[in-house]
Design goal:
Two copies of one chain form a homodimer. Chain A is about 60% helix and about 10% strand. Chain A is mainly alpha-helical and about 200 residues long. The first copy, chain A, has a two-stranded antiparallel ribbon. Chain A is elongated, with a radius of gyration of 23 Å. At the A-B interface, helix 1, helix 4, strand 3, helix 5 and helix 6 of A face helix 1, helix 4, strand 4, helix 5 and helix 6 of B. Strand 3 of chain A pairs antiparallel with strand 4 of chain B. The structure holds a DNA duplex (28 and 28 nucleotides).
DNA sequence: GGTGTCATGTAAACAGTTACATGATTTT
DNA sequence: AAAATCATGTAACTGTTTACATGACACC
C-alpha cells in the first residue's frame, strides 16, 4: 500500500495542490507517512505520467504558480481497486517494548522513571488525537455512513492509545511501583513489592 | 532506535551467531524488523568494527564456519544507554484504516466483506501470538521481575489486537451489518468468537 | 527586519526488503 | 532424489527522512 493510495483518496473528494496534500497527510492520524516533499511531489509526477491524475497550472501574479491536481476516471478505478484488496492486520511499532525487554540494565528507580515517561507520552498522544477528532478537518463525503466511519477511525486511534495506557498502568501496579512510593503517602502496594522486588 | 539495540539486547544474555539472531528477531512479536540477512550481517560487521561486539570463528570440519558473537563491556554500556533514552509513544501502521477511509467507493456488501476479512486477520494474529506466548522462547534472565516483564510484553501485543477486534466488532454493529443479515446463521458464531477471543 | 506561511522542487543519506549466491548437512 | 535447515554473505531496489534551495507575501 503506497502513498499513492492516500493521495488518490484525498483527491477523490477535492482537487488540491501538492502543498495542501502534504499538510493533510502530515496532520492525519492514520496516514502514517511523514508527508515530506520528496515523496509527495515524486508520487504526483509519477501519477501524472501514468494518467491517474491531471493538473491545472494556476499562474498567480508575482507569486509562485500553483498546480492543482485532479483525480481522473482511471485514478478512481485505481482507488477502488486499492480499497478492495485483502485487508492486512495492523502493525505495531513500539520501541518502548524493546527498552522494557532489556530493562534488566536498569535499577528499579530508573525503570520507574521510564514507565512514567512512557505513560506521559501516551497521555499526551491521547490529548492530541482527541483534539484532532474535535476539529476534524477533512472528511470526504458528508453522508451519514461516511461521517460515522471517519469518527470510528478517530476512535480506533484513540482507543489504541487508551489500551496502551491501561496496559502500562497495570504493569506499574504489577511491579509494585505506585506514585505514593516516590513521593506522597505510600500504602499497601509498597509493602507487597518489597517482598518480591527489593 | 536501530536494530543494533535489538542485537545487543539479545546478545546481553547469550552469545549467538548471525543466523540465530536472525531467527530470534524474525520470530519476536515486538522486534519489528523483518530480520533479513542484509541488515543483520551488516549491523554485526559495523558493531564489530566499533567494538560493541567481538566474534569467535568456529571452524567446523567441512561445513561452513560459524561466527559466534559476544557482547563487550562497551556494548553493555551502549545497551544501557539505549534503555535509558526517553521513551517514544507507540506508532500504529494500519493500512486498513485507509481502505476504510475511502470505502465510499464500495457498496455495503463489499464493505462488509472487507470488515469480515479484517476481523479474521486479527483473530488469526491473536491465535498466533497466544501460541508464541505459550512456547515463549527466549527470555534474557530468569528473575521474577524479568519473567513478569516478558509476559507483560506478550500481553501488550495480544491486548493491542484484542482492542482492534473489539473495535471492528463495534464498527460492524454500528453499521448495522451483522452475520445474521448476510445469512451465516450469525448468533452462535458471534457468541462463540467472543468467548474465544475476548 | 525577522519570522512564518504558501508553493515548488532536488540531493543525499539512511533504512529496509526481496532476491540472489554458495555449500554442507539433515530430513522426508 | 528432493526439500528443508544451517550458515554466511552480496546486489539491486524501494521506501523514507532530513536537509537544501528558491522566491513571494503577510504579519508583528
Amino acid at each position: 500500500m503506497s502513498i499513492n493510495f492516500a493521495i488518490l483518496g484525498i483527491l477523490s473528494s477535492k482537487s488540491l495542490t501538492g502543498y495542501e496534500l502534504k499538510k493533510i497527510i502530515q496532520e492525519s492520524p492514520f496516514m502514517y507517512w511523514s508527508g515530506n516533499n520528496n515523496q509527495i511531489y515524486k508520487a504526483l509526477a509519477e501519477m501524472l505520467a501514468t494518467g491517474l491524475v491531471t493538473n491545472e497550472v494556476q499562474q498567480q501574479e508575482g507569486s509562485p504558480s500553483k498546480k492543482i491536481y485532479t483525480i481522473t476516471e482511471t485514478g478512481r478505478e485505481e482507488l477502488r481497486k486499492c480499497a478492495q484488496i485483502a485487508p492486512e492486520p495492523p502493525e505495531f511499532k513500539k520501541t518502548f517494548l524493546m527498552q522494557l525487554a532489556w530493562s534488566g540494565q536498569l535499577n528499579i528507580r530508573e525503570l520507574n522513571a521510564q514507565l512514567e515517561g512512557y505513560e506521559n507520552e501516551i497521555k499526551c498522544q491521547i490529548a492530541l488525537h482527541q483534539e484532532k477528532r474535535r476539529i476534524n478537518t477533512f472528511c470526504p463525503d458528508e453522508t451519514d455512513r461516511e461521517l460515522y466511519i471517519w469518527d470510528m477511525i478517530h476512535e480506533n486511534i484513540i482507543s489504541s492509545y487508551r489500551n496502551e495506557l491501561i496496559w502500562v498502568e497495570r504493569l506499574r501496579q504489577g511491579l509494585g511501583i505506585s506514585y505514593e512510593k516516590w513521593g506522597c503517602t505510600g500504602v499497601l502496594t509498597t509493602a507487597k513489592s518489597r517482598l518480591t522486588y527489593e
